[in-house]
Amino acid sequence: MTPDQILGQIYQSALIAGNRSLIQDSRLVEHINRVCQCTSNRSGVRFLMACLLGKLDRPEVDPRKPYTKIGGSDSFSGRRYDEDYLTPFINQHQLPVNSTTAFLTPTFRNHDQPLTTDRELVGRPVELYRSVLILLEDVAESRISAEDLLAEIVRVLLEIRDEQLHRINSLLSSLERSQGSLPLSTEAIIKLITQHLACKNSSRLPVLIVAAAYQAAKHHLGEKILSLQAHNAADLQTGSLGDIEITLQDDSAVITAYEMKMRAVTKTDIDSAISKILKEGQTVQNYIFITTEPIDQQTMDYAATWYEKTDGVEIAVLDCLNFLRHFLHLFHRIRQNYLDAYQELVLNEPNSAVSQALKEAFLALRQAAESDD
Asked: What is the Cα–Cα distance from 212 to 244, expressed in whole angstroms?
């Protein structure tokens, strides 16, 4: 069987099992649940799935050796299985794991020794990585089959997925019932977004705040937003100018780029942006920093000096919420469209970028705002 066929068979086994565990050993169940249910780190479960798929495709390999640099006939490229086969499988079934390969996360990058249980992987939570190593050893020592373990992991992930979808759908239904005939005011929307930004792990939200503005007003602006890059993808890796790139409706040349900072913007940030613009020879006319922190006047003055030096590229530093406030007043009649666009972007982000808790928080905050209004 091909790896795709193996995953198809695993998926069917998980579906048939439903809410009944395929593993009877309570020790194994504890480790599996720790890996699958760790909300703060979703790389461990994806890494484990890739190792198990490699073992199922090539029974002669050691699942603890998913790096070709380890050497020997029993090592393999876990990253290949991760990127080539797990990515479409995960996307197809909306499994709650990292949206990108686990092999580029710091803990799982570039090992040249087998991942045995006497090793200590550096990362948090420590218990997660310990459970990953134990489960890999259990497969290597034939205490559990790779097929049974992978099927149980997929079964648990499907349970988590369905539970998350049920909570989101329940909140959406409650929100729909609470909405009145009068849309939220601009200031009420600002308050709502401010509360959402104040939640934990909200670093992705400034990107969505700006993206939603262009999404809601694209027919008025004659401009469109290019596809958003993954939350953890560096600009150098993706070749993009910033977190958001804007083009004209009938063109592909970037005319405006946005860079989001959950900290104060510095002169070094501006120098880095200028370097990217000059190096790539882009047609960008505006490079805008959006920050959630106070803006230093000297930084703003420094940004302004680059207009003539770059022959017409404007560099600006804007406050995130003031940007949104101005947009909502300027496009007052479509403020409800903006809120809907922001909600859609938040809910469609992978949980690795916008957590389930952050998605639920927004829906609860919006429901409260709609009810009060």
From this structure: 11
Let me know: does 174 contact 367? Beta carbons within 8 Å.
Answer: yes
In tens, the pLDDT along 315-368 reads 999 999 999 999 999 999 999 999 999 999 999 998 888 999 999 999 999 999
What's 32's DSSP letter? H
Q: Which amino acid is at 182?
A: L
- Pairing type for strands 223-225 and 244-248 reads antiparallel
- DSSP, collapsed to helix, strand or coil, labels residue 165 as helix
Other CB atoms closer than 10 Å to residue 31's CB: what's the count? 22
| Alpha carbons 222 and 169: distance in angstroms, whole number | 34
Q: Does an H or E element contain 257, and which?
A: strand 254-261
Looking at residue 235, its pLDDT comes to 46
Q: Residue 5: what residue type?
A: Q
For residue 261, the 8-state DSSP code is E
Interatomic CA distance for residues 231 and 233, integer angstroms: 6
| Separation of alpha carbons 131 and 135, rounded Å | 6
Model confidence pLDDT, tens digit, residues 134-172? 999 999 999 999 999 999 999 999 999 999 999 999 999
Q: How far apart are CA 302 and CA 318, in angstroms?
A: 14
- Distances in Å between the Cα of 36 and the Cα atoms of 50, 95, 164, 331 are 14, 11, 14, 44
The average confidence (pLDDT) of the chain is: 92
Which class for 273: exposed (0-12), middle (13-18), buried (19 or more C-beta within 10 A)? Answer: buried
Cis peptide before 125 (omega within 30 of 0): yes
Four-point Cα dihedral 294, 298, 299, 300, nearest 10: 90
Strand order across the beta sheet in which 244-248 lies: 223-225, 244-248, 254-261, 286-291, 314-319
Q: Which residues pair with 223 in a beta bridge?
A: 248
Specify the range with the lowest mean pLDDT, choosing from 37-51, 116-130, 188-202, 268-282. Answer: 268-282
